[in-house]
Every structure is written in structure tokens, then in C-alpha cells.
Amino acid sequence: MLPFAVWLVWGTYFVFLYLIIFWLLVLIRENRLVVERGGLIESKNKPSDYPTVTVAIPAWNEEENIRDTIESVMGLDYSPDKLEIIIVNDGSTDQTEAMAKRVMRQYAGRKLRLITQPNRGKGAALNTALQNAEGEFFAPMDADSLIRRDALRHMLPEFEDPQVAAVLPLMKVWQPHNLLQRVQWCEYLVSVFYKHLMAILDCISIIPGPFSVHRTRILRELGGFDEQNITEDVEITLRLQTHHHKIVQNFHTEVYTKAPDTWRQFYRQRNRWYKGTFLNAWRYRKMALNTKYGDFGFIQMPRMVIEGALLLLVLGALLYTCLLSPLATQLRLASLKGVDLWTQFAQTVTHFSFIDHEWPAYFFVSVFYVLGLVLIRYAHKHAREPMRKHGYFVIPFYLFLYWMLTTIVYLGVFTDLVRGKTRKW
Length: 425
Description:
Elements: H1 4-37, E1 53-59, H2 66-74, E2 83-90, H3 96-104, E3 112-117, H4 122-132, E4 137-140, E5 145-147, H5 151-155, E6 164-173, H6 179-200, E7 213-215, H7 216-221, H8 232-242, E8 246-257, H9 263-283, H10 294-337, H11 341-350, H12 359-382, H13 394-419
Helix pairs in contact: 1-10, 1-12, 2-3, 6-12, 6-13, 8-9, 9-10, 9-13, 10-11, 10-13
């Protein structure tokens, strides 16, 4: 009988092979739908017929970014009298409030408001803006992000479908300047492409903070954002899904976010993201494998719960395949021959025998990486970004090393969950 570790390795490989084949089939379906839809949607309304939109900018200690964000929103190609901007300073301890007031003086006469409140978290800041919003549509805007001028003209026409509750722009990393940010730039393109495929199945599980547009009425009917949630964007998405509202990914406009440029910042951000995703998936676990929620219940909900565990299994499978299995074989042979184990161990580390390696497993790993390259190519194509833009050298780092960084974050997440550790922002 095969040992448990071997079953674990091969089970992991086949799970991921199944997922890859599944998403390739979705990709084929997606290409057919793009041809049928014809692509670009843009508003043909006159400015006087535009619906009113409220943009909410929650900010906590964003003195370095708040100016660029406000100016980005004020630069939207949209009728000024139909656009309302509400900045909520959530108890910042730096110069966020002063900087916001300084920028607001440049736009006297525009519908631009600043509300300052004690620190209560991002969800509470968004609810403050929602309570004061006059727009038919409500667009949260992270204070470290920038939006393209044509965003509303491309996104609002999606709401002609009365079932649509929220529309997402294509999200990219703003001007990456080091290796970590460039790898995140690649990751964001893959993530948005994956979200586009999920939208085909009505399976989007997160409406990100940077300039996703909601129907104000629906947000209010659902009770606004969860103020106790560390990832309120994930929670509101799952709540929309429980009520069978439609979420659309728009590929014809872009929002840019400033990605972490140090490992410490990256770890803190992803720790909050992954932890919040897991906690929300557990909170809404009754949706999993529930036919009432269609593909979302059978595809997205299980993924949200087990994604971290799968990454840890992959790391374990690779360690077993590439190191532990051949090493154990060599040491077992050494013990049978009566050779000194320490000496044999030192020799084995630098002289693996080819016959001791799990070559079928290496084949599957190679297949995964080849398909990963195909996915990256499609992601760049759909995002209208040349693969050479930030250097071809970034792609090997993304394929071979980046998933290891996220696995380390998941280890930290599981540790925090055991300790009961959470954060507000």
C-alpha cells in the first residue's frame, strides 16, 4: 500500500490538473462570448441625462496619497453637477485632514465634502459616506488609488441590465518600480482575468475597494457595509451573492492602485486580505455546495475556504517530491548497508540519484507551469498590456517564487486565527 504522503502528493496534482482543465474550458467559452457581445460598451447619453454618482473616499493616515486620489476623481470625464465626492477622514493621526482641505480649496464650487469622525474602521467610514450620499450610484474609492477619466462612461451603461448591482473596473498596479511591485503588477493582471472568467459563471467573490460602482439603493437595502469586518469588500460581495444580485467585470476602463513596495507592507496587506476572505467564507459557509447558489456555491465558496490549505499542500508536495522522497530513499539504503548515516546524508544533499526522483510528478509540475505561461499571456492580452512592459524576467519570479510568498502569508494567517488576532484597517 502506498504511504499517505504519496497519496497526498498525487491527490494534490490531480486536483490542480482538474482545476486547470476546468478553467481552460471556461476560457474557450469566454472567447466565444466576447465575439457574441462585440466588446466595448460606452454611454450614449447626453451629460444632462447622466445619473448622479457619489464617490466615497475613506481615508486613514493617507497624507501621502490623498491629494492624488482626490485629483484623480475630480478629473473624471463626467458632468460636474452629477458627481458628488465625499471624503471620510476616519480618525487619522497624520496630516490627512489638512491635506484634504488644501486640495478641496482648489475645487471650490464642486460637490466635494469632508467628514471627520473618530477612528472606527473602513466599513464605518464607507457607511458614513453612504448615509450622506445623494447619488443614484455609489463608488467607494481607496485613498491610495487613481481612476481613469473615462471610467464612469464605460461602467454605468452596464447598469442598463436591471439585475446588475455592481460593476468592477480592470485593476492594475500604479507605476511599479521594484521587483516586488512588478511581480504584483503581473499578479493583478492574472487576478482580474480570472475574475473575468468567474463573471461568466456569475461567481465573483470580491468587489475590490478601488472604484467599484454599486447601486446605492441596493447597498442601503442590504444595510450598508459590515463595520466589524476586516475585509468589508468581500463581505458585501458575499451578501450580494446570497441575494442573487449580478456583479459585472468591465474590461474597458482601469483603476490603478499603489502596491506595497516592501515585504513588511506586502505581508500586512495580504495577511488582512486572506484572513478576511477565510473568515467571511466561513461565515457564509452555508452557501458552499448549495444548489440554490449555482456555480458560485459549487466553485467559488469551496475555493475561498480551502485555497490556503491547497497552497500549503502544494508546497508540501514539492518538498516531498524534490527533497524528502529521494533523501529518504538514500538514507534507507545507507542504513541497510551499514553506512554512517550522517556521512550518507551529507553526500545525498549534493548527489541525488536520478532514479530516486518522482519524474512523473515533475512532468505534472512542468505542465502546470506551461499552462501558467498560457494564462499569463491571456491575462496580458485582455488587459491590453504587452508582456515586455515591465520585463520578461518578472514572469519566472511570479511563476516560481511568488506563490511561495503567499504561502508564507497563509501560514501567518492560520497562526493569527489560532491566536484570535485581527485588525480594522
